[in-house]
Amino acid sequence: MRVGFIGLGSQGAPMARRIVEAGFDTTLxxxxxxxxxxxxxxxxxxxxxxxxxxxxxxxxxxxxxxxADVEQVVTGEQGVxxxxxxxxxxxxxxxxxxxxxxxxAERAQVHGVSVVDAPVSGGGRAATxxxxxxxTGGESGTVAYCRKVFETFGDxxxxxxxxxxxxxxxxxNNLLFTANxxxxxxxxxxxxxxxxxxxALAEAVLHGSGASFALDRVKSAGGTLDPLAERAGxxxxxxxxxxxxxxxxADATAGTALVAADAALDRMGQGRLTAAPTPAPRx
Length: 283
What we know:
Helices cover about 50% and strands about 15% of the residues. The protein has helices at about 10-20, 50-55, 65-75, 80-85, 100-110, 125-130, 140-155, 165-190, 200-205, 215-220, 225-250, 255-265; strands spanning about 1-5, 25-30, 45, 60, 90, 115, 120, 130-135, 155-160. It is globular, with a radius of gyration of 20 Å.
Protein backbone atom coordinates (compact mmCIF):
# COMPACT_ATOMS: atom_id res chain seq x y z
CA MET A 1 0.00 0.00 0.00
CA ARG A 2 1.23 3.50 -0.87
CA VAL A 3 0.68 5.93 1.99
CA GLY A 4 0.56 9.71 1.98
CA PHE A 5 0.88 11.67 5.22
CA ILE A 6 -0.10 15.32 5.76
CA GLY A 7 0.55 17.09 9.06
CA LEU A 8 4.01 16.65 10.56
CA GLY A 9 3.53 18.27 13.95
CA SER A 10 4.62 16.99 17.36
CA GLN A 11 2.35 13.95 17.04
CA GLY A 12 2.05 13.59 13.27
CA ALA A 13 5.80 13.50 12.62
CA PRO A 14 6.50 10.42 14.77
CA MET A 15 3.39 8.74 13.34
CA ALA A 16 4.69 9.31 9.81
CA ARG A 17 8.16 8.07 10.75
CA ARG A 18 6.69 4.85 12.14
CA ILE A 19 4.88 4.29 8.81
CA VAL A 20 8.05 4.92 6.81
CA GLU A 21 10.19 2.70 9.03
CA ALA A 22 7.63 -0.11 8.73
CA GLY A 23 8.47 -0.22 5.02
CA PHE A 24 5.42 1.42 3.49
CA ASP A 25 5.98 3.44 0.31
CA THR A 26 5.36 6.86 1.87
CA THR A 27 4.96 10.39 0.50
CA LEU A 28 4.92 13.47 2.75
CA UNK A 29 3.63 17.02 2.39
CA UNK A 30 3.79 19.89 4.88
CA UNK A 31 2.87 23.58 4.75
CA UNK A 32 6.23 24.37 6.33
CA UNK A 33 8.95 22.68 4.26
CA UNK A 34 11.33 22.89 7.22
CA UNK A 35 9.35 20.15 8.98
CA UNK A 36 10.36 17.75 6.22
CA UNK A 37 14.05 18.10 7.08
CA UNK A 38 13.69 15.54 9.87
CA UNK A 39 12.87 12.90 7.23
CA UNK A 40 16.02 13.44 5.16
CA UNK A 41 17.45 10.21 6.56
CA UNK A 42 14.42 8.14 5.51
CA UNK A 43 13.07 6.67 2.28
CA UNK A 44 10.04 8.98 2.33
CA UNK A 45 9.37 11.09 -0.75
CA UNK A 46 8.23 14.70 -0.66
CA UNK A 47 5.30 16.12 -2.60
CA UNK A 48 4.90 19.72 -3.73
CA UNK A 49 1.17 19.77 -2.92
CA UNK A 50 -1.63 17.64 -1.42
CA UNK A 51 -2.86 16.76 -4.91
CA UNK A 52 0.60 15.50 -5.91
CA UNK A 53 0.81 13.48 -2.70
CA UNK A 54 -2.63 11.98 -3.32
CA UNK A 55 -1.71 10.93 -6.85
CA UNK A 56 1.13 8.84 -5.38
CA UNK A 57 -1.00 7.28 -2.62
CA UNK A 58 -3.66 4.65 -1.94
CA UNK A 59 -4.24 5.82 1.64
CA UNK A 60 -3.85 9.46 2.69
CA UNK A 61 -3.49 10.16 6.42
CA UNK A 62 -4.40 13.70 7.52
CA UNK A 63 -3.16 14.95 10.90
CA UNK A 64 -3.60 18.74 10.82
CA UNK A 65 -4.93 21.03 13.56
CA UNK A 66 -8.63 21.65 13.05
CA UNK A 67 -11.73 21.32 10.86
CA ALA A 68 -10.83 24.17 8.52
CA ASP A 69 -7.35 22.74 7.93
CA VAL A 70 -8.75 19.27 7.21
CA GLU A 71 -11.28 20.58 4.72
CA GLN A 72 -8.67 22.76 3.02
CA VAL A 73 -6.12 19.99 2.43
CA VAL A 74 -8.80 17.53 1.33
CA THR A 75 -11.21 19.63 -0.76
CA GLY A 76 -9.14 22.70 -1.72
CA GLU A 77 -8.13 23.52 -5.28
CA GLN A 78 -4.91 21.52 -4.84
CA GLY A 79 -6.51 19.14 -2.36
CA VAL A 80 -6.32 15.41 -1.87
CA UNK A 81 -9.63 14.64 -3.58
CA UNK A 82 -8.36 16.10 -6.84
CA UNK A 83 -5.53 13.57 -7.06
CA UNK A 84 -6.58 10.43 -5.18
CA UNK A 85 -7.49 7.42 -7.32
CA UNK A 86 -10.91 5.76 -7.22
CA UNK A 87 -10.87 3.22 -4.41
CA UNK A 88 -8.48 5.34 -2.37
CA UNK A 89 -9.02 6.09 1.32
CA UNK A 90 -8.63 9.24 3.41
CA UNK A 91 -8.00 8.75 7.14
CA UNK A 92 -8.69 11.81 9.32
CA UNK A 93 -6.41 11.62 12.36
CA UNK A 94 -7.18 15.22 13.36
CA UNK A 95 -9.66 15.81 16.18
CA UNK A 96 -12.63 17.46 14.47
CA UNK A 97 -16.42 17.55 14.50
CA UNK A 98 -17.88 14.23 13.31
CA UNK A 99 -20.02 16.18 10.83
CA UNK A 100 -16.82 17.37 9.15
CA UNK A 101 -15.91 13.75 8.44
CA UNK A 102 -19.41 13.05 7.16
CA UNK A 103 -19.31 16.05 4.81
CA UNK A 104 -15.94 14.95 3.49
CA ALA A 105 -17.28 11.43 2.97
CA GLU A 106 -20.18 12.76 0.87
CA ARG A 107 -17.81 14.71 -1.34
CA ALA A 108 -15.33 11.84 -1.51
CA GLN A 109 -18.02 9.39 -2.61
CA VAL A 110 -18.42 11.35 -5.84
CA HIS A 111 -14.75 10.61 -6.56
CA GLY A 112 -15.04 6.94 -5.60
CA VAL A 113 -13.01 7.59 -2.44
CA SER A 114 -13.75 6.40 1.12
CA VAL A 115 -13.22 8.26 4.39
CA VAL A 116 -12.52 6.92 7.88
CA ASP A 117 -12.03 8.96 11.02
CA ALA A 118 -9.13 7.77 13.16
CA PRO A 119 -8.21 10.34 15.83
CA VAL A 120 -5.41 9.36 18.18
CA SER A 121 -4.54 9.90 21.83
CA GLY A 122 -1.32 9.60 23.78
CA GLY A 123 1.02 12.33 22.56
CA GLY A 124 4.32 12.40 20.73
CA ARG A 125 6.13 9.95 22.99
CA ALA A 126 3.42 7.32 22.53
CA ALA A 127 3.54 7.88 18.77
CA THR A 128 7.30 7.37 18.74
CA UNK A 129 6.91 4.15 20.70
CA UNK A 130 4.02 2.87 18.56
CA UNK A 131 1.47 2.83 21.37
CA UNK A 132 -1.02 5.56 20.46
CA UNK A 133 -4.67 4.81 21.07
CA UNK A 134 -6.36 4.92 17.64
CA UNK A 135 -10.17 5.30 17.69
CA THR A 136 -11.61 4.54 14.27
CA GLY A 137 -15.00 5.14 12.74
CA GLY A 138 -16.23 4.02 9.35
CA GLU A 139 -17.19 1.00 7.28
CA SER A 140 -15.59 -2.07 8.83
CA GLY A 141 -13.95 -3.27 5.60
CA THR A 142 -12.35 0.13 5.02
CA VAL A 143 -11.06 0.24 8.58
CA ALA A 144 -9.61 -3.25 8.11
CA TYR A 145 -7.88 -2.06 4.92
CA CYS A 146 -6.15 0.70 6.92
CA ARG A 147 -5.36 -1.34 10.01
CA LYS A 148 -1.83 -2.47 9.09
CA VAL A 149 -0.82 1.17 8.63
CA PHE A 150 -2.54 2.30 11.83
CA GLU A 151 -0.83 -0.48 13.77
CA THR A 152 2.59 0.92 12.91
CA PHE A 153 1.96 3.75 15.39
CA GLY A 154 -1.08 2.57 17.34
CA ASP A 155 -1.77 -0.04 19.99
CA UNK A 156 -4.63 -0.55 20.47
CA UNK A 157 -6.45 0.25 17.22
CA UNK A 158 -10.16 0.17 18.05
CA UNK A 159 -13.18 0.29 15.73
CA UNK A 160 -15.80 2.39 17.54
CA UNK A 161 -18.61 2.19 14.97
CA UNK A 162 -19.82 4.11 11.90
CA UNK A 163 -18.12 7.20 10.48
CA UNK A 164 -17.81 9.89 13.15
CA UNK A 165 -17.70 7.43 16.05
CA UNK A 166 -13.94 7.77 16.41
CA UNK A 167 -14.27 11.53 16.74
CA UNK A 168 -16.97 11.25 19.38
CA UNK A 169 -14.84 8.80 21.38
CA UNK A 170 -11.84 11.14 21.13
CA UNK A 171 -13.88 14.17 22.22
CA UNK A 172 -15.25 12.27 25.22
CA ASN A 173 -11.69 11.22 26.06
CA ASN A 174 -10.52 14.83 25.93
CA LEU A 175 -13.48 16.00 28.00
CA LEU A 176 -12.49 13.59 30.75
CA PHE A 177 -8.80 14.48 30.42
CA THR A 178 -9.57 18.19 30.76
CA ALA A 179 -11.82 17.56 33.76
CA ASN A 180 -9.10 15.44 35.34
CA UNK A 181 -6.60 18.27 34.91
CA UNK A 182 -8.78 20.47 37.13
CA UNK A 183 -9.29 17.86 39.83
CA UNK A 184 -5.61 16.88 39.81
CA UNK A 185 -4.45 20.50 40.14
CA UNK A 186 -6.98 21.19 42.91
CA UNK A 187 -5.90 18.11 44.83
CA UNK A 188 -2.20 18.97 44.61
CA UNK A 189 -2.98 22.53 45.70
CA UNK A 190 -4.29 21.14 48.99
CA UNK A 191 -0.97 19.45 49.82
CA UNK A 192 0.82 22.53 51.25
CA UNK A 193 -2.20 23.22 53.48
CA UNK A 194 -1.31 20.01 55.31
CA UNK A 195 2.44 20.49 55.22
CA UNK A 196 3.03 18.11 52.29
CA UNK A 197 5.10 19.00 49.24
CA UNK A 198 3.06 19.05 46.01
CA UNK A 199 5.63 17.04 44.12
CA ALA A 200 5.82 14.41 46.84
CA LEU A 201 2.04 14.04 46.89
CA ALA A 202 1.93 13.74 43.11
CA GLU A 203 4.59 11.03 43.17
CA ALA A 204 2.66 9.12 45.82
CA VAL A 205 -0.73 9.35 44.13
CA LEU A 206 0.73 8.32 40.77
CA HIS A 207 1.42 4.96 42.44
CA GLY A 208 -2.04 4.80 44.00
CA SER A 209 -5.67 4.41 42.98
CA GLY A 210 -5.94 8.15 42.21
CA ALA A 211 -3.36 7.97 39.42
CA SER A 212 -4.22 9.41 35.99
CA PHE A 213 -2.55 10.63 32.82
CA ALA A 214 -3.77 14.14 33.72
CA LEU A 215 -2.10 13.98 37.15
CA ASP A 216 1.16 12.99 35.47
CA ARG A 217 0.88 16.02 33.15
CA VAL A 218 0.17 18.37 36.07
CA LYS A 219 3.09 16.91 38.04
CA SER A 220 5.39 17.45 35.05
CA ALA A 221 4.16 21.05 34.86
CA GLY A 222 5.21 21.72 38.46
CA GLY A 223 1.88 21.01 40.11
CA THR A 224 -0.20 23.70 38.39
CA LEU A 225 -2.01 24.23 35.10
CA ASP A 226 -0.08 27.38 34.20
CA PRO A 227 2.68 25.77 32.05
CA LEU A 228 0.04 23.82 30.12
CA ALA A 229 -2.04 26.86 29.25
CA GLU A 230 -0.27 28.16 26.14
CA ARG A 231 0.36 24.80 24.48
CA ALA A 232 -2.66 22.70 25.44
CA GLY A 233 -5.29 25.25 26.43
CA UNK A 234 -6.57 26.32 22.99
CA UNK A 235 -6.73 22.75 21.66
CA UNK A 236 -8.56 21.48 24.73
CA UNK A 237 -11.01 24.38 24.54
CA UNK A 238 -11.72 23.50 20.90
CA UNK A 239 -12.41 19.89 21.78
CA UNK A 240 -14.53 20.57 24.86
CA UNK A 241 -16.62 23.11 22.93
CA UNK A 242 -17.19 20.55 20.17
CA UNK A 243 -18.32 17.96 22.71
CA UNK A 244 -20.55 20.47 24.52
CA UNK A 245 -22.23 21.30 21.22
CA UNK A 246 -22.73 17.62 20.39
CA UNK A 247 -24.21 16.99 23.83
CA UNK A 248 -26.60 19.90 23.44
CA UNK A 249 -27.72 18.69 20.01
CA ALA A 250 -28.27 15.18 21.36
CA ASP A 251 -30.05 16.55 24.45
CA ALA A 252 -27.50 14.69 26.56
CA THR A 253 -26.22 15.82 29.96
CA ALA A 254 -22.44 15.92 30.27
CA GLY A 255 -22.78 16.65 33.99
CA THR A 256 -19.82 17.05 36.32
CA ALA A 257 -17.26 16.22 33.64
CA LEU A 258 -18.16 19.33 31.65
CA VAL A 259 -18.30 21.48 34.77
CA ALA A 260 -14.80 20.37 35.82
CA ALA A 261 -13.46 20.74 32.28
CA ASP A 262 -14.93 24.24 32.15
CA ALA A 263 -13.08 25.12 35.36
CA ALA A 264 -9.79 23.78 33.96
CA LEU A 265 -10.17 25.84 30.78
CA ASP A 266 -10.90 28.98 32.80
CA ARG A 267 -7.79 28.46 34.89
CA MET A 268 -5.71 28.00 31.74
CA GLY A 269 -6.85 31.42 30.54
CA GLN A 270 -9.29 30.07 27.97
CA GLY A 271 -12.41 31.49 29.61
CA ARG A 272 -15.47 29.55 30.56
CA LEU A 273 -17.74 27.96 27.99
CA THR A 274 -20.77 30.11 27.29
CA ALA A 275 -23.26 27.46 28.32
CA ALA A 276 -21.61 25.06 30.71
CA PRO A 277 -24.44 23.13 32.41
CA THR A 278 -24.64 22.42 36.10
CA PRO A 279 -24.83 18.79 37.16
CA ALA A 280 -28.33 17.37 37.06
CA PRO A 281 -29.69 16.49 40.52
CA ARG A 282 -29.77 12.80 41.36
CA UNK A 283 -33.25 11.30 41.43
